[in-house]
Automatic annotation (TrEMBL):
This is Nuclear transport factor 2 family protein. SUPFAM superfamilies: NTF2-like. Transmembrane segments: none annotated. Residues 8-108 form the SnoaL-like domain. Signal peptide: none annotated. It comes from the Bacteria. InterPro entries: NTF2-like_dom_sf, SnoaL-like.
Length: 120
């Protein structure tokens, strides 16, 4: 597994982490000091806002898990990857893809998300 693939797996694991302290520790380890997350549902600037954004998504989609859907495509500190959200082992309810930029240490600096499939 490539280093970028591992980072994306860790990123998705942070989205699934329901323990607030463990989730925050993952965010602090994975993201730069002043990161930005953007998707059609909102903008989160900074680690605190990203943590709150993830917690809100967990509240909205309680019991569902994020998982990678395919390999990560990456070059020059930029990666794109498809993810799914659904019940463990079940069909995805939401499908999207993210484009991430990394700093030179491999930490997420900006993630822009897109939604391809959403519930009706």
């Amino acid at each position: 597994m490539s280093d970028v693939q591992q980072r994306v797996e860790q990123y998705l694991a942070a989205w699934n982490e329901t323990d607030p302290a463990a989730r925050r520790a993952a965010i602090d380890a994975l993201w730069t000091e002043n990161p930005i997350y953007v998707d059609p549902l909102g903008v989160a600037e900074g680690r605190d806002a990203i943590d709150a954004f993830i917690a809100a998504a967990q509240g909205q989609f309680a019991g569902l898990v994020f998982r990678a859907a395919g390999a990560v495509d990456a070059h020059h500190n930029v990666a794109r990857f498809t993810w799914e959200l659904g019940p463990e082992g079940g069909e995805a309810i939401v499908v999207g893809f993210d484009v991430a930029t990394f700093d030179d240490d491999g930490r997420f600096d900006r993630v822009t998300g897109f939604l391809d499939k959403v519930p009706a």
